[in-house]
Design goal:
Number of strands of chain C: 1
Largest sheet of chain A: 2 strands, antiparallel
Strand content of chain C: under 5%
Number of domains of chain C: 1
Radius of gyration of chain C: 21 Å
Number of strands of chain A: 3
Distance between the termini of chain C: 44 Å
Number of helices of chain A: 22
Oligomer: heterotrimer
Order of helices and strands of chain A: HHEEHHHHHHHHHHHHHHHHEHHHH
Order of helices and strands of chain C: HHHHE
Distance between the termini of chain A: 63 Å
Chain lengths: 585, 461, 82
């Protein structure tokens, strides 16, 4: 079969019809869209489709190969789970934003050239921001605003990069870039991608915005933006040493914040940075095994991170808070949610039989294989931090531990949320237990057996002894109701400063011309002061009469005019105009 | 009947001239709407007209007719948007001047001779000078604005005449066709470029391009909402058309002319956006936004070819609709004719979701956010300038886009997030709703499906 | 609810669970020490029970370091930005 229907079409077009449906039919339709997406991915065959010419540029909508298919698969599956989880939302806008976001990611994943990529890239940013705004708190709106600005900046980096790249190579084709031949156009593109992958120090938008998103929106958000970025990095920049280093740094950076944050969704958001770090490091190491690991980890990660966000979201949805200092002991009221969260937590930590075990270890093993022992140690250190923060700390202080606040009336979330969590848990388990099917999806042949004795021993030691240390230090690790500074400090304060600067400096320039007139004596442009006064009187009188409009009190107008201001404007205009002409010609 | 539209517009204006002589008292909105729709119909009828009239000074062809269509559509929207009889004095005159101004503008896009260009321009400008002070208001800001506009316009016209003089002196003809053929001999000389640039001045003024922009914020703030809406949109279309025509005079890419345009564009964008960032009055903000957009528009001219000109035409079309849309929101919100502040948008999403959405679409488009027409247009402009090899200006424009997103999105943010001072829901009439939806749909359709429109423009260039 | 009852049951026998856990840890270390090491290339593979040592020290340092950061320079009041 050599036909291919762009899966993004179902999301982009289907979402438009959503408002036409009502009641139960609407819910069916919401689920039908991702099902159509899954089907269209399932029947895809490899090849290049949808080539087009636009403004003299070659575009390609559909590059369907192994690498793009891995991501397409997980995106469509995730879109179904996310839609199921969000099924109870009444607002059409929320669903539509979600579907456009998914459609944008799919479009980006299949894009064969930078132009197509860029358009979907922007569509993702601008649709996802609504998921943050649907958080509906004032903080959500502001955080969404910052998120958007940050992504616009990222889009700009990408745009500038691809334009320079075009002038360098004469092509917009998006292919692997050899690390040796890269110069600053490629690095600009890399920076644009890295921003979406939340590579430090371009990461601050993520923990700033995701925790403020709507409960259901966060589930979508955690899956798509960063993983699309991982895809484009894997496609274009595999083997870039800087990615290996930055990725590893991200893994540790993320867990440090995950350990100290108080809000569950902030813990998870920081932890995305850590997890994406693994993938970025895998891309940076660049061997077949490492890129496989990056793709596998992205696949597995999307599912269990979404599961964790679902769990955290369910807690927030039912209790009204996601701060651990206000939770504790709620396993009694939400046991199923707790179980599902724990499945996500042990998947992410890499317990045998769960998905993290078979994906994350590929990257660690690739580092080991290449003799990058420092990278391997740091990656495993981040693994320790993962289990410590997301696995133990959140589970303990949210579901067990001392009850803070009154949550007696809390119960399990709506059925659709439970089903979404249940299905996701099942997938995490299946991937971890039957990795061979999963490995078949990977871009390169996989020769890795996660269930070897030495690997089992390594992981079990890491996990179990992390448990021991947590048990011994549990008091020290109790969360504090505090806000932790991050890079966003600089731009949040910086923006305020800039606006102040603008108000103090730029805005007065607006009113400055009149002053300039007096101080510099531009009056001479119009001859003597007397002359200009006469000009004023005659000209203004003439005009006012000429409008056939009876005006009361011409004198007051003249006073309001601040005599000479018009001439100043005109004089200055002409002066500037001729100065420019003189300078240029 | 190649001149059908011009004659129709003349009749339109004369009709209101007679009405202005009468007692008045009757509502003129209905006749104005019907007759403006008629203008659109007539311009559709004459869309394929062709001809060279008045001793070759007046050319009716695809280029002129398509712009005439856009102009009449713009006029019609302004007339339909305007529905408050306490906003301006002398209602019949207001409509009469709108008609005259549009007449002047339609003549302008057909003029292929310097003197006819001048006369058409003046017809349209004088009508505009006259309607700026027609605001019914307690303050005298509109009078100040009117005078500024008049003086500025007069000086810009003067400078243009100066340039025309040079062109005539060098090519011994006022016909653009002769000037084109005489161009190669003079175009290398700085004086040739100077003549061309000076001739463009009046249209720079219409588009409020730096440094001929000083009038814009004051006039936007001072004139009534309806007047501002017209001035901010329709004349700019004709201004862009004439700039296309004049740059095409050069025939081939001119480094020096491109340099002038680029410098003006860079200043215009930067000044407009930086000043726009701190504005509180929405109309004033849009004045600065217009200055910035005039700068963006210049990017399309840098290519000196048909596709570049088509991009300019496309962008000015999008600009027309996104500005009309935003002004409509302003008009509907400022029920008592006072100027709207950014803070007044607070709670708009709750008071009228449709209006907030219309605002959001228009602001997104002005900011250049996909999938709106503003994004597609800006994207085309950047690509055009880039392919012409002017990278620095592309970067400046891109940086400016980011700057501008701050204040456009701020409008959206305030309307969606801030708590309203008054919670009373805004009830729109059915026709108002239709217009809101129509604007948003047009902006989105232009953004998503730009190719048919673009192809149409390329064909007539 | 059943699930809750099971958890309550287990919590009531926490001392037993602790003992089982310690036993399990010991077992893990013994298992790792007994693993064949002929394929070992790097020190991480050669040292017996390396990951136990690594985890205990690493986890301790990581926890202290992070919390230390939070308590000194990073931690601010929750309304810091407002």
């Amino acid at each position: 079969m050599n036909n291919w229907i762009h899966p993004a079409l179902f999301y982009l077009v289907g979402a438009l019809f959503l408002p036409l449906f009502k009641g139960a039919l609407k819910k069916v339709f919401i689920l039908l869209i991702p099902v159509a997406g899954i089907v269209s991915v399932a029947i895809s065959s490899y090849g290049n489709y949808g080539a087009y010419q636009f403004l003299g540029v070659e575009g390609l909508f559909g590059r369907v190969d192994k690498l793009s298919m891995v991501f397409a698969w997980v995106f469509v599956i995730m879109s179904f789970l996310g839609a199921l989880y969000a099924l109870h939302r009444k607002e059409d806008g929320h669903h539509i934003a979600g579907f456009y976001y998914v459609g944008g990611s799919l479009g980006a994943v299949f894009a064969g050239d930078y132009l197509t990529l860029f358009i979907f890239w922007e569509a993702m940013a601008f649709s996802s921001v609504f998921l943050i705004w649907y958080g509906k708190r004032p903080q959500s709106v502001n955080a969404g605003y910052r998120y958007l600005l940050f992504h616009v900046f990222g889009g700009l980096l990408l745009f500038a990069g691809m334009m320079f790249y075009y002038s360098k190579t004469g092509s917009f084709a998006f292919n692997a870039i050899p690390p040796g031949g890269a110069s600053w156009p490629e690095y600009l593109i890399l920076a644009g991608f890295a921003l979406n992958a939340a590579v430090i120090p371009l990461h601050a938008w993520l923990p700033d915005a995701y925790p403020e998103a709507s409960v259901e929106g966060a589930v979508f958000l955690c899956a798509f933006t960063t993983k699309t970025a991982v895809y484009v990095l894997a496609r274009g920049f595999s083997g870039f040493e800087i990615l290996a280093i930055m990725g590893t740094a991200m893994t540790v950076f993320g867990v440090i914040y995950a350990i100290i944050e108080n809000d569950i969704r902030r813990v998870l958001a920081y932890h995305i940075i850590s997890q994406v770090g693994y993938m970025v490091a895998g891309v940076g190491i660049g061997t077949m095994m490492a890129v496989n690991g990056a793709a596998a980890h992205a696949f597995a990660h999307i599912l269990y991170k979404a599961l964790l966000f679902m769990g955290a979201g369910a807690v927030l949805y039912m209790t009204g808070t996601s701060k651990m200092t206000q939770l504790g002991g709620i396993y009694k009221y939400m046991p199923l949610t707790m179980i599902f969260y724990v499945v996500g937590a042990i998947s992410i930590s890499g317990f045998p039989f769960f998905s993290g075990f078979v994906s994350k270890s590929m990257i660690v093993a690739a580092a080991h294989h290449e003799g990058r022992i420092w990278l391997m140690l740091l990656l495993n250190l981040a693994g320790i931090g993962t289990f410590l923060s997301v696995g133990l700390k959140v589970t303990y202080f949210t579901f067990f531990g001392k009850e803070s606040g009154d949550h007696r009336n809390v119960h399990e979330p709506p059925a659709n949320m439970l089903w979404a969590m249940g299905l996701t848990s099942l997938l995490c388990f299946l991937i971890g237990t039957f990795p061979s099917v999963f490995y078949k999806l990977m871009p390169f042949p996989v020769e890795f057996n996660p269930y070897s004795a030495s690997h089992l021993s390594e992981m079990m030691q890491i996990l179990s002894f992390t448990g021991l240390v947590f048990y011994l230090m549990v008091k020290k690790l109790a969360p504090d109701a505090k806000l932790n500074l991050d890079i966003d400090y600089f731009y949040r304060k910086g923006t305020v400063l800039f606006i102040k600067f603008d108000e103090k400096v730029i805005a007065p320039v607006d009113a400055f011309w009149g002053e300039l007139y007096r101080t510099l004596g531009l009056k001479s442009l119009f001859g003597t002061a007397t002359l200009s006064y006469i000009f004023d009187q005659k000209a203004i009188d003439g005009v006012v009469d000429g409008t056939a409009h009876s005006v009361m009190g011409i004198g007051s107008i003249v006073k309001k005019l601040q005599t000479g201001r018009v001439q100043t404007y005109i004089g200055l205009s002409l002066l500037l105009f001729f100065a420019i002409l003189w300078a240029v010609l | 009947m190649t001149l059908l539209l011009e004659i129709y517009l003349l009749l339109f204006s004369v009709l209101f001239l007679f009405l202005s002589l009468g007692k008045g008292g009757k509502s003129l909105f209905l006749p104005a709407r019907i007759f403006s729709l008629g203008a659109v119909a007539v311009s559709l009828i004459t869309l394929n007209a062709n001809g060279l009239l008045f001793y070759g000074a007046y050319q009716v062809n695809g280029f002129s007719q398509i712009f005439k269509l856009i102009l009449t559509v713009g006029l019609t929207f302004v007339v339909f948007m305007f529905n408050r009889d306490d906003e301006v004095d002398n209602m019949p005159e207001f409509f009469m001047f709108l008609g005259f101004s549009t007449l002047g503008l339609t003549a302008l896009v057909s003029s292929v001779e310097l003197i006819s260009i001048l006369i058409s321009l003046e017809i349209s400008s004088f009508s505009l000078y006259a309607i700026v002070p027609l605001r019914r208001s307690k303050t005298t800001g509109h009078l100040e604005a009117a005078i500024k506009y008049l003086f500025f316009g007069a000086v810009a016209t003067g400078v243009m005449l100066y340039g025309m003089g040079y062109l005539y002196a060098m090519t011994h003809s006022t016909y653009l066709a002769d000037i084109v053929s005489g161009m190669p001999a003079i175009i290398d000389k700085p004086l040739g470029i100077l003549a061309l640039v000076l001739t463009m001045t009046a249209f720079f003024f219409k588009l409020s391009l730096f440094p001929l922009h000083f009038w814009a914020p004051d006039i936007y703030e001072g004139a009534s909402d309806a007047t501002t809406t017209f001035i901010a949109t329709v004349p700019k279309v004709a201004g862009a058309a004439l700039l296309i025509r004049l740059t095409m005079l050069a025939g081939a890419p001119l480094a020096q002319l491109a340099m002038v345009l680029m410098v003006l564009a860079a200043f215009s964008m930067t000044v407009g956006n930086l000043a726009g960032l701190v504005q509180q009055d929405i109309k004033r903000l849009l004045g600065y936004s217009g200055i910035a957009h005039a700068g963006y528009l210049m990017l399309g001219l840098l290519a000196f070819n048909k596709s570049g000109s088509a991009v300019v035409a496309y962008y000015i079309t999008v600009y027309l609709f996104m500005n009309l849309s935003l002004f409509y929101v302003i008009m509907l919100l400022s029920r008592n004719g006072e100027n709207l502040k950014v803070a007044d948008l607070a709670g708009l999403a709750r008071r009228s979701p449709l209006l907030a959405l219309t605002l959001a679409v228009a602001a997104f488009s002005l900011a250049g956010i996909p999938p709106t027409g503003g994004f597609t247009g800006k994207f085309f402009l950047l690509v055009t300038a880039f392919k012409a090899g002017y990278l620095p200006i592309v970067i400046i424009a891109a940086v400016n886009t980011v700057l501008s997103i701050f204040y456009y999105l701020n409008l959206v943010r305030v309307s969606y997030s801030r708590e309203a001072k008054e919670e009373s829901p805004l009830n729109l009439t059915f026709s108002e709703k239709i217009l809101c939806v129509l604007f948003s749909v047009i902006i989105l359709v232009l953004g998503i499906m730009p190719l048919p429109v673009m192809e149409m423009f390329v064909r007539v260039m | 609810m059943n699930l809750v009852n099971i958890l309550e049951y287990l919590r009531a026998r926490i001392e037993l669970l602790k003992k089982l856990f310690y036993g399990f840890l010991l077992l893990l270390v013994v298992f790792d020490v007994l693993l064949p090491r002929e394929h070992a290339h790097f020190f991480v593979d050669k040292i017996p029970a390396f990951w136990t040592l690594f985890t205990v020290t690493g986890c301790f340092i990581l926890a202290r370091f992070s919390k230390g950061l939070a308590h000194t320079i990073l931690g601010k009041k929750e309304d810091f930005y407002e």
